[in-house]
Design brief:
By secondary structure, the chain is an alpha/beta fold. The chain contains ten helices and nine strands. Strands 1, 2, 3, 4, 5, 6, 7, 8 and 9 form a nine-stranded mixed beta sheet that branches. Strand 2, helix 2 and strand 3 form a beta-alpha-beta unit. The relative contact order is 0.12.
């Protein structure tokens, strides 16, 4: 069969979820992507052989291994750096295409704005049908993306430094999106492509999850936002998580303390927006959210 995704690699980080990966591989084969270039990173799984076995049926797949866990942020960086194609589609081990839409034709014709940071796709959560974007969402520039449902222009993403590896996971996507926007590498929504996220929250380490999201909320603000919107604003948002989200208060409290400490540690790595840029980006996000509400209400 021909490779439907010309000059593109599918990249997937995974850890200790061979059954999820096997299901995703089956879905990719079913939709005609058995010959597509696919890179999988096993992030220090207990049994990497199971990860390798889950790739059975793919004709052009390669697995990389981490001996020590890095998390999704650096995992995707490693996959991006290792790929040899112009574009990289980021999936998770529990995420797969429902519709390829216009993507094969667009890739074959290479009809993309070279300044784009990436193409964002529809994402539907399997267990409740939740959609990140409404079905009638048009082709439009968007401020944010989901890490398991985007096609990156690889060079532009690497040009801004890729993901911040020390974030591991949690807020790594809006953090990268902010730097792409700052560098004038916009994100564009492609409405014809649909991804399903077969999410299983029970498999998550919830203590780690809440720790990292509190920590990384503070780092997101410190690294990118000016003045009071930086460390003070991020700390207030993390404290809000502590009181408005149920459970794991100790993990959240540790995350807040670690976020403040790490903000000082990574202070020299800040890529701050100006106050004007911050206000413009905030307005962009607000306008997009208003458009989403109007689309849902069919206005």
């Amino acid at each position: 069969m021909p490779n439907l995704l010309h000059n593109c690699t599918i990249i997937i980080p995974t850890r200790n979820r061979p059954d999820d990966l096997k299901r995703t591989v089956g879905k990719l084969i079913d939709i005609g992507l058995a010959d597509t270039q696919i890179l999988v990173l096993d992030d220090a799984s207990e049994d990497p052989r199971s990860t390798k076995n889950a790739l059975t049926g793919l004709n052009n797949a390669q697995m990389l291994e981490n001996k020590n866990r890095t998390g999704q942020a650096e995992g995707r960086n490693r996959l991006l750096r290792h790929s040899t194609t112009k574009y990289c589609i980021c999936l998770d081990d529990d995420t797969y295409f429902l519709q390829l839409g216009k993507l094969p034709a667009l890739l074959m014709e290479d009809k993309f704005d070279e300044s784009l940071g990436g193409l964002v796709f529809h994402t539907i959560r399997s267990y409740d049908g939740f959609r990140e974007f409404p079905p009638n969402m048009p082709k439009v520039k968007v401020p944010l993306f989901i890490g398991c449902s985007i096609m990156f222009n690889k060079e532009n993403v690497l040009r801004v430094g890729g993901y911040r590896s020390f974030l591991m996971y949690g807020c790594e996507e809006p953090e990268l999106a902010t730097r792409l926007w700052r560098a004038s590498y916009p994100l564009e929504f492609e409405p014809s492509v649909v991804i399903e996220h077969c999410h299983t929250s029970e498999a998550r380490d919830h203590g780690e999850y809440h720790f990292l999201y509190c920590r990384n909320t503070i780092l997101l603000h410190t690294l990118n936002y000016p003045g009071v919107y930086g460390l003070p604003g991020g700390t207030l948002r993390a404290i809000k998580r502590l009181f408005t989200m149920k459970g794991h208060k100790y993990s959240k409290f540790k995350g807040i303390l670690c976020g403040i400490k790490d903000s000082i540690h990574f202070w020299d790595q800040r890529t701050l927006l100006t106050k004007g840029q911050y206000q413009a980006r905030k307005q962009f996000i607000n306008d997009t959210n208003k458009m989403l509400v109007d689309l849902v209400n069919n206005r």
